[in-house]
Target: GTP-dependent dephospho-CoA kinase
Amino acid sequence: MQLPDDLRDQLKNPLGNLIKDNDPNRENIIKKNSAESIIITVGDRTTENMLQLELKPQVQIIDGLEKRVQCLVPADDTVNTKLSCRNPPGEITEESIQVIQKAFSCEPPVRITVDGEEDLLVIPVCIYAPENSVVMYGQPNEGLVIVHITPEIQAKVQKILDAMN
Model:
């Protein structure tokens, strides 16, 4: 599924709460989540930041790139399940959707390594994540977005995914 040009501007708006770059500390992030929340990170920097803050994401989605430049994939020795998928830039593949769905039934923490680009995978993650989940991803040059999964968020991102077909 390709991202049409008319959706690009819509996706520049954060899906949830934006924590500015200068303020993503542990206390601010914990304040925005409940203790029972399932934490899901999309992006290498976001995953690395959460691991450094000792907030263990149960599902981590990385591609080894930051702003399209090769980066060092953050190590996490606590990962129980390693999955991978192919997802070209500007697309969401059926394979990546299936791997995301599978991740929620695997023993956490789960790390999905994407061959391609993980940015748009926030969309299927928000659709398939359990309701008590919190999805975190980076908003380029702005900060960290925290999305609390609700039926309303799931319906909103489902419309975006449907528009990509």
Observations:
- The longest strand covers residues 81-87.
